[in-house]
Queue: 3 jobs
Job 1
Amino acid sequence: MANPNDLSSLRFEPPPPFAAGEALRGEVREFLAAHLPKRAVTQGLGSWGGFDPEFSRKMGARGWIGMTWPKRYGGHERSALERYVVLEEMLAAGAPVIAHWIADRQSGPVILRVGSEQQRQTILPRIVAGECFFCIGMSEPDSGSDLASVRTRATAVPGGFRVNGTKLWTSNAHRANYMILLARTGDKGEQRHAGLTQFLVDLQATEGIAIRPVYNLSGEHHFNEVVFQDAFLPDDCVLGTVGEGWKQVSGELAFERSGPERFLSAFRLLVELTRALQANPSERAQIALGRIVAHLYTLRRLSRSVAGMLQAGANPALQAALVKDLGTTLEQEIPEIARQLLDEEPDRDSARDVVAVLAHTMMNAPSFSLRGGTREILRGIIARGLGLR
Amino acid sequence: MSETRDLVREAAERLFEKHCGADILRRADAGEFPQVLWRALADAGYAAALVPESAGGAGLEMADALTLLISAGRHAVPAPLAETMLAGWLLSGAGLAIPEGPITVAPVRTGERLSARPDGKAWRIEGRATRVPWAGQCGAIAVLAESDGRSVVALVAAADCTLGKGHNVAGEPREELVFSGAKTLQAGASPVGIDALHALGAVMRSAQMAGALQSVLATTVQYANERVQFGRPIGGFQAVQQNLALLAGQSAAATAAAEAAIEAAARDLASPAVAAAKIRTGEAAGIGAAIAHQVHGAIGFTQEHRLHYSTRRLWSWRDEFGNEAYWARRLGSAVAEAGADRLWHAITAAG
């Protein structure tokens, strides 16, 4: 039969044994028992538990933000696997972690990789402390999956750049301290990915930025439209190298794709569904629960495998795309399965937790396979990994 | 991944590559037992991989031995390798000697039970076991029977039971055995019960399915790169690419689930990782086979093309040693019984 070595690039190494992680897991669970805010079970669904600066500061104080970063920037030099334990415990508990999530996951790492020494020293310790939050300035009205088509332009002027353009779908721009902005600084030329640059934008200190809410279909405010009108960014706001924005962004996106947030978005619903069914589960309910749990075991293993490969210094971008595609597919299935087992009409205001959580999860589900790269884009990446394009 | 496992895998890959060519697969499909292949499997120690060295076996670590079956699945090995490994494990666990040649096990259907009754110092076996793999090709059957709530392992000569012919959809023998007071060649108290036997069988089928899906993926990608329509390879079309990406995901998930079960089986055959593997690989088998055939078009639907050696096995194996619904019900009832507040603990404890 076919030579399996042809597709060795698709190999997921088994997650490394990690007994030490269990002690840390115990610490996180104790912390959650003491500090998880008491609130409605529907709070923060669809936005990684919600935005809670006080909770983020507490996590920072425990050393659970910027865990893998160098100590000289306030980091804790712990392993990617330890970080994984903290992330998954927080998500499974529904802890409000979105405030620092983006900074911890991708903005901090990109600053660490390409930022200037001054940027690293001024910003990273504040992220680590849970005091400095980020949003992602990539998408635009005419630039979603086709990121290289961004039109926001940063024109060189004496001492810096003048920025004009509009960013869209910018989650938490209204309460973040910084945006990492992707803007066009040069012409496309031969390569359409050329001429892009990343900037570190202080959203409070910069004149000429207007932030307007875009409400999602649930009526919630996560997204924003961010309009730059002659906003001046001094030279020291350039992140990395002028013209290297595309390369930097591609690296950044790889961090976005394989974490436990890519299969736990509907976990609260699974918990409440189990609670609703556990006293007297029908055979059909048992089969459905067993199948979902089998998928979760497998996804968690794949996701931890990627964490292990990251820890070992590999570049598992292809594996990350596979995990996200499989994970978001399951996340979107869970509300569809739940509703058939419950025979209840979804209702966000229901006094029954499972019914309210079902309504929220179902309404958030479309975003699962859009954020962080659409399903179609991910499958294109996978196809390229298979040697098909 | 242990170093031994890598070495075992590489050696197995070479052996299967050599002995499972298109001609062997075609002849096996027509009902011919692959004697040369079998001798190679026996000589390499694979057939007795789960028998301790002290009992004349290869004495591999269980995880290393089970990993062999991923390779075997990749090559659609048309012989009772998994079954003989399983029989060796069952017999040696009860301190019984292992006969030469291929051996199978009964019962394999999850609802079926055989009974053993004492007859002087020996035992007699009663009952009916259906869908027993390769029974007609095996000289002896390792039987797990019950006697007053205790489990008894016995070796029964094939000649001492009645055999009804049959096949799975891959064309592998799956036969009915009737034991009417069948005498035993050897017997002893079993340290394991029927659930453990079926669990190990399920891990084996999961490993074989994971291997078969790897092969199906490689074959299908290769075909998509070679087959030209509308002036370019069909793998250049997005609609085909999206399906192949899905197939790659199913293959990756199946391998991860099987590897998790292989690790767990060495520690505890009651681990939820076993159920999860059979559920996940079984689901992947159906989705994967469907995509592979869609991409291959009509040629993949012919007897001439090799794709069916893998896909017909996937369609067979997913229903053997308990289908997805059987294992999902077991896993789901355990999840419900533990309750919502233990769900996350259970998921993280599975490793």
Note: The longest helix of chain B spans residues 194-226.
Job 2
Amino acid sequence: MMRRQAPMSIERLTGLALWRCLIGGLIGGALGFSASAGDAEQGARIYAKCQSCHMVGAEAHNRVGPHLNELFGRKAAGVEGYRYSAELNRAGANGLVWEARTLHLYIENPRGLVTGTRMAFRGIAERQDRDDLIAYLRLFSASPRDIPEAAPTAAVRDPDVDPAILAIEGDPAYGEYLSGECATCHQASGADKGIPSITGWPARDFVTALHAYKNKHRPNPVMQLVATNLSDEEIAALAAFFQGVD
Amino acid sequence: MKMTRRQTLGTALAGATALAAPAVIGAVRPRAVVIGGGAGGATAARYIAKDSKGAIDVTLIEPSRTYYTCFFSNLYIGGFRSLDSIAHSYGKLASNGVNVVHDWATGVDRDAKTVALAGGASVGYDRLVVAPGIDFREGSIPGWDLSAQNAMPHAWKGGSQTELLKAQIESMAPGGVYAMVAPPNPYRCPPGPYERVSMVAHQLKANNPTAKILIFDPKPKFSKQALFQEGWEQHYPGMIEWLDADFTGPVEDVRPATMEIVAGGEVTKVDVCNAIPAQKAGLIAEKAGLTDASGFCPIVPATMQSRMDENVFVLGDATIAGDMPKSGFSANSQAKVAAMHVRAGLTGSKAFPAKYSNTCWSLIETEDGVKVGARYEATEEKIAKTDGFISQTGEDAAMRKQTYEESLGWYAGITADMFG
């Protein structure tokens, strides 16, 4: 893939003294494990999409969104003093941690990973762009980031839900029957108290979310267990049913 | 069918709803009768009525007008919930097409397909759902019988017993002893005794910090043991002593008059004795001939039908549900499978393969919640566990708080699912 020269050096962008060593480590990793590492310089350009809300680097502080220093290995909703959405707080308490795998999912489709997030960002569909952006953000975390096979920078398999799964036409009548199981915890009225509401979601978001549980990207073990035992058709049926419930 | 004025209130409301369903005007509707208005019975009645859209005449027989959930009753003892907050009425079920009859079911004639009520009436059925919960095995705690339940409450059924136990704990003398005689397996709510001890400890820590808690346990291990013991060590150091019968010897006698417990030849004087006897299916299941030698009801795993009678379904704590524990969540899960098969049998609606699940949350101390859960499938032989999870020791406070908040959400969800 052809890459243009980044217009500004990482050193000037980040203001970090150690940048050269870090980039060295990163490239070393990329050479040895070429599968997933992104281009941090390219990532710095992509970061322009984020910077109206998020600061990173020296003197970064919370703005519309939380600062992104020390992001890797940080628990979701983990920046002191930043007011997160209830859903992101819940995800963090349930054990969602920011690392390459989870950041890929979140940056690709924020609501796919955390349904009620306030991050009003439509996501970055291009896999390479996400790799690059994550490589850039990785520069600002002091955790052991240069070992590609270890968390938080482990190589990621493609998180996308197979388009064939998204295309399954769900049967809302079957979904209504299956929804009895959901109603034990999720209130049919849509009330959200300790356990989130699942009514009125766009079917696509619903399917993405359940597959995120099935693949253990979303943290809650109750939901992982529920999703693991649902077939693709059953998930589609539930999505079709709940989409129509106000 | 004869009824008193008060009993017919639900019938009148149900009749009005039925008339609103045009497909059944003039038709004789098939009848489903449900005995017991708890997590199994109330859910079954609601789902049969809701999903058949008036095509089935649904009657729920439940003696209490106010139902106190057994789940969360420990949180009431701990002071985290009011009694009102765990009380539920049957008004919404009645206004949603369920004919609610407040009376005791005293017998079932399975040949004539009728249920006899204490008030003298008899109710005919095409399908019967039996969800009576548990009763106690006589003689399982030597020295204890139901006449001793005021001196030594079991508090293993929701309501007045729970209130009594809470009052006794609150009036314990400084430095007094609360003792629990824990039940042998199988029993309602496997983590329940240990959550209860946690909630009693929470109360005592605040109001009577030199008091002690003793657990006389016939079992060598118990549900969520590592989690509870870690929490007791952390929150209530030195207060709780778990006395495993293999070590101390079994309870040989309890003496309600003198508040003594005899175990392993040793007499212990206590201030409160929470005696939880061994259990069996609710009495009506036994009277109906649905139990086996175990005292519980064998069921067909795929449908929740009784092994004794295909026109009868049994739910919840009264059943032998294979790997599923006796819990409100389990009963609610089983009720939906039974409701589907009741409908399929009476109206020809489609029946899908059974799906069963359970999660049990327990509170150890303020915002320190833990959970255990599993999913199950029906095999020929039993309801078999396929997959499960449990909270881990050493989890951080945020995760435990989230687990507790999740349990509050579940309580709101399941009670809405049961009662409408």
Note: The longest helix of chain A spans residues 19-32.
Job 3
Amino acid sequence: MQSNSNRDLAVGVFVLIGLGMIGYLSLQIGGLSLRDPGGLILFATFDDIGGLSPRSSVRVGGVRVGRVESIDLDEDLRARVRLNLALDLELSIDSAAAIRTSGLLGDQFIALEPGAEDELLVSGEEFAFTENAMNLDRLIGSVVHGDGLGGGD
Amino acid sequence: MMNRIRGLGAATLLQLEEIGEVVRFGGRILRATTRPPFRWRAFMAAVYDSGVLSVALICASGLTVGFVLGLQLYNTLIRFGAEDSLGTAVGLSLIRELGPVLTGLLVTGRAGSAITAEIGAMRTGQQLDGLRMMAIDPIHYIVMPRATALAFVMPLLSALFVVLGVFGAYLIGVELLGLDGGAYLGSLEAAVEFRTDVLQSLVKSLIFGLLLGLIATWRGYSCEPHSAGVSRATTSTVVTASICILLADYLLTALWSL
Amino acid sequence: MTEADPEPGHVEIRGVALAFGRRRVFESLDCSFVRGRISVLMGGSGTGKSTLLRMIGGLQRPDEGSIHVAGEEIVGLGEIGLARVRDRLGMLFQNGALLDSMSVFDNVALPLREHTDLPAAEIAERVHDRLAAVGLSDIDDLLPGELSGGMLRRAALARAIVMEPEILLCDEPFSGLDPPNVSRVEALLSHLNRDRGLTVIVTSHHMATSLRMAHRILLLRNGGCVEGSPAQLASSRDSAIREFLGKDGAEYLAHHGHEFQGADG
């Protein structure tokens, strides 16, 4: 068989570049972690989760620290969200979980606001403070009726 | 009137019959991959012809599509004051849709048609019969390396297209239109996630590659053994594969969002 | 009328019928090809010479009938079964059918590399031996496209015999060649038949060459065939046959009249 070492080299370089591109897209841009950083399981209960869905991201100060694993209704018919967060995350017991929207029309995510207490949340515990998804209708309604913004919890 | 209906029925049956043959052909290719030897030499040669030789085309197209996307999306986003999200808009459109689909169509035109012509010429010159007479399976020897090479190069080329597109839009947005580079990359990285976006892109391009590999080799293998037949088969590859890629794109997009 | 052969032919065709669409090519065809002999299939265009050769090779399936190659029924065999029979066949196609992206050496070596575990040195020896046998040397690295018609035909012949087949099928081996090359190929085929006992089946309409080379001629017409030695056919009572063989037939008789046994073809 004709062996063409130049061509073989070109093929090798091509494959390396292609794999490199895939790696860049996956790791750098797509945020794929090669080690599973999850493991810290926390729960947050909301009246209204808006457009939040399983796989939505969880962020602290804009940085992704985990994802929503599942959403269920509890006995009071409120939405109980199960979060899978980075194992090394340290959140005090007075931290809050709020549902925010990315930009004006973007995806919904959970923003965690760290509290001030020394004691930390442990796997399996609940967030004490939660903030519902902002409902655009209610917002406009309260502005129109001059009620003041009633985001509430 | 009855003749029209009869004609439609006959045409439909003919189509179904052909689809059946293509599926059977695909099965033979699949079985050929499990039988040793793998034919690395031929595979590498096919990767060179379909992949390496397409790099220039993919780079040029990716870059220009990036330029256009950057410009067009900027014009729309700036109306909502959301121009800092250019990275998001460009990244998501390229990764989820434009990367795999445009790469698929470009590779179809460039490499798919070439493979159909090559196999068709072999059929015309009785080279495939020659192989059979030597008790060598032409599907194992000729078809399998080429079909697998097409499937293999597609995700690689698609990723290359996407990265160049992102870069092209970056050049337009940041260098030309004065956006903040950090905001561009930041919004890009924030919006794109591996599981929902990058993985979808890779799976799509792999499936497009498999479709093209099957269609391009089938058309060459089953064409009428003369130059007009080869020419017709080559055109048919481009048309059929393009349509199948677009349909598959729709199906995969729908399935992925479930 | 065929002579009664004491043993079944190396290739036996019985009751074969084949039609392409509305065109009937064969209608209950019976013929046999004797082992170790050169048989030439002749007939006007469209009488199915090449098709019959392809059927023997398993590349074309008849609508009805049976075909026995080296004692084995091949109608109804799948590609895997046919592969077994093809081990004993070699086929020379009209335009060579060498793979045009590979060198001549690689083309001739291909069956050896695919079907045997021979070391590279031995493969090289065999390939060069076959190429020398057909009168080609120093063309190892040339591509088929760089060969002249005669050289291409002979290279393809080298490939056809590299696996030592029992039966050699040649589709129009003389067509498109200039007279010196026609003689060369004729000499090669006769030589292979004499020295290696190869059964050679050829399709041709090169009248003079065929008559000279053949032990038996099979004339295809009207969906069937007429068999006989060249002398028998040349002196046939059937005027259509004599007319087909034409002036070459008459010339053949003039030179070989003493071989004529008497009974008509």
Note: The mean pLDDT of chain B is 92.
